[in-house]
Design goal:
Length: 310
């Protein structure tokens, strides 16, 4: 059996198991506090598992799920992304832009840097810090991604490229297929709600989606936060050490520096094909290898840059 066919089977099976478990826990005759203690860790796991959907989608976006069968690759990528309501077409477009232009300058593909026209006042600094903390620690980056998807879906292609250079080459056909995939995702959510009722919907898709919004926002930028800015876009990145269970869920995503240098390496080969960053990127970017420390480092806040006009 193909390695990635197994991966898809595992991803869907575990999702079904934790969904059943969550509904079962919800129905236990326990005091609310005890129920919360049991359900809390499970809900976190559900959020992480939705991040697994996102990363299976990431492999599909890079055409690596079934490299020799593009239609099969996109079909299974789309299926796994359905609970997230993210069309693979849009995912691929945004993600390729990220690889091509990651932290190229202060403005491009750079989430932790705010460029201001005049030296920032204290109020302005506080404002940007609040935005940053909401983005990372309160689900803001999930909303940011959601807005990007909606832009791609419903804004005319000619207009969208003016909003973001990531839309270059985006056609009406891409847009229509994306709307179709998005509609299927919405339909999945509605079908579960209609077929099984509100409670089952909330514990299988609703609450896990909120958990995912938090997990995604917390983790999505740890590999690029406060790394170098400049033309070496493949090197403006860091890796972190593997964490048992989490690295399994996240499919070796911790080997992020290797992935950015060689995006074609499939997820299961990343650890053995690990490639260190060249100097001076290594010294500047690889300041921590601890996964949890990389998350907490984001507490330092954003990079506020005063743009001098020449």
């Amino acid at each position: 059996m193909h390695r990635n066919a197994k991966l898809i089977a595992e991803t869907i099976s575990v999702f079904l198991l934790i969904s059943i478990l969550a509904v079962w826990v919800q129905g236990l005759a326990l005091p609310a506090v005890w129920k919360g203690l049991v359900y809390g860790p499970l809900l976190l796991f559900q959020g992480l598992w939705f991040y697994r959907f996102y990363i299976v989608g990431h492999e599909a976006a890079h055409k690596k799920l079934f490299a020799d069968q593009p239609a099969r690759n996109d079909f299974w990528g789309s299926v796994v992304l359905l609970p997230l309501m993210v069309p693979i077409t849009i995912y691929r477009k945004i993600h390729y832009f990220h690889h091509g232009f990651n932290r190229k300058d202060e403005h491009t593909s750079n989430l932790d840097t705010f460029v201001v026209k005049r030296p920032p006042s204290l109020a302005k600094k506080i404002y940007y810090h609040v935005i940053w903390y909401l983005s990372v620690f309160f689900g803001g980056f999930f909303i940011h991604s959601l807005v990007s998807v909606v832009l791609f879906l419903f804004i005319p292609p000619a207009l969208s490229v003016k909003i973001s250079p990531a839309f270059k080459g985006w056609t009406m056909r891409d847009q229509l297929s994306s709307i179709g995939l998005f509609a299927l995702g919405v339909l999945l959510h509605l079908s579960v709600y209609w077929a099984f009722g509100k409670t089952i919907y909330l514990y299988t898709l609703g609450y896990p989606m909120l958990s995912f919004a938090w997990v995604l926002s917390l983790l999505v930028y740890i590999f690029h936060y406060d790394t170098t800015i400049g033309d070496g876009v493949r090197y403006n990145v860091r890796s972190v050490n593997r964490v048992p269970v989490i690295s399994w869920i996240l499919m070796n995503f911790n080997e992020h520096a290797t992935h950015h240098q060689y995006p074609n390496i499939p997820w299961y080969e990343l650890p053995e094909k690990r490639k260190a960053l060249p100097e001076p990127y290594l010294t500047k970017n690889q300041r921590t290898r601890n996964f949890f420390k990389a998350i907490l480092n984001q507490l330092k806040g954003p990079n506020i840059v005063h743009e001098h006009h020449h």
